[in-house]
Amino acid sequence: MGYGKFKKKSKAGAAISTASLPDIIFMLLFFFMVTTVLRETELLVEQDLPKATQLTKLERKSLVAHLYVGKPLNTQIYGKEPKVQANDVFVSLPEIVRWVAQEKDKLDEVERDQLTVSLKVDIGTKMGIIVDLQEELREANARKILYNSLKKTAALGG
Amino acid sequence: MSKRGTRSVPEISSGSMADIAFLLLIFFLVTTTIANDRGIALLLPPKIEDEPPPEVTKKDKNIFKIQANSKDELLVEDEILEDLDELKEMVRKFILNFGDPTKEAVETYNSLPPSLKRYVNEHGRQDDNSDGPDEAVVSFKADRGTSYELYIRVLDDVNAAYNEIYAERIGLSVDEFLALSKRKEEEKELYESARVGLPRAISIAEPTKVGG
């Protein structure tokens, strides 16, 4: 009867071409690769780490807290004297105790005494500020420290 | 007009897409630096209480004194040390002296491998040097004006002296010894066995405030 009226015209055009799917995926991949920023502290101090041979590796990254010491990069605002940086800001020495407490709070209760403070100190720093810093760390009972250094290649070092 | 519909759209070859992706992948692989948490570990002394620090009862010869001034000059055992490369050997001699060993130190000596025993007999047994490794303490005192670079250098050399003895004692290279993981039971045991009777006694003294 009027059946022909509803007959589909043709099957062509039903399948969507998937040829461009990889391109879309790649576009997405590139987009995220370019826009993703790994969460890293932005350095506010000069960092030229010393070289040493007897390096030990820290076993557990979650137990490590970093402190950066060195001459500020922006000397016009912060002056030329070495400063201590924790996370993204400068901290004064009396604030270290509080900072340690904060870092310890992030850990499980049983692991709090295992906190290791990794000191990333610029090679040009004098010992004065480091001694003061260590004094504060002792006060805060964060006694495990690590002087972060790079591997000295055997060819150069004696 | 009617022609337009039949015109074929030029295909862009996507064959090189994979290459571009690989190039990018390799680029990021090469440029990304994974933060390295490696360095020289140290345990600070406990919090200073009101009471004064305990009197030093150790014999003077059992303390190996290293002092640095603000001009980065070194005074080792009260003599000026010009060549830093000698320091490691001096510390090694000091630790392995066995001048007047206690019973424990004699046991430690007997547990040493032949190469280290030979070293003790050739270089050690000096009366004016340490009594034994269990008594020996390396003391390092830096000035506030000493550079961090020298501080790390000295600390590294003293650690190197200890680590070389430890490594030799259990028949490993220094790098292999340093790579021992303290989380694996067997490796930890090996590590402890290297240190038995030979404690790493490094004392960081309170710095002086006077210049050099």
Note down, in words, how this protein is organized.
- The complex is a heterodimer of chains A (158) and B (212).
- Chain A is 27% helix and 20% strand.
- Chain A has a domain at 51-151: Nucleotidyltransferase, domain 5.
- In chain A, strand 6, helix 4 (127-139) and strand 7 (144-148) form a beta-alpha-beta unit.
- Chain A is an alpha/beta fold and 158 residues long.
- Chain A has helices at residues 21-35, 75-78, 96-105, 127-139; strands at residues 51-52, 56-57, 64-70, 83-86, 89-91, 116-121, 144-148, 150-151.
- With 212 residues, chain B is of the alpha/beta class.
- Chain B has a domain at 60-158 and 200-207.
- Chain B has helices spanning 2-6, 17-31, 87-95, 103-111, 114-123, 148-169, 174-178, 185-195; strands at residues 38-43, 63-68, 74-76, 79-81, 137-143, 202-208.
- Chain B has a five-stranded mixed β-sheet with strand order 4-3-2-5-6, with helices on one face.
- The chains are: A alpha/beta (158), B alpha/beta (212).
- At the A-B interface, helix 1, strand 2, strand 6, helix 4 and strand 7 of A face helix 2, strand 1 and helix 6 of B.
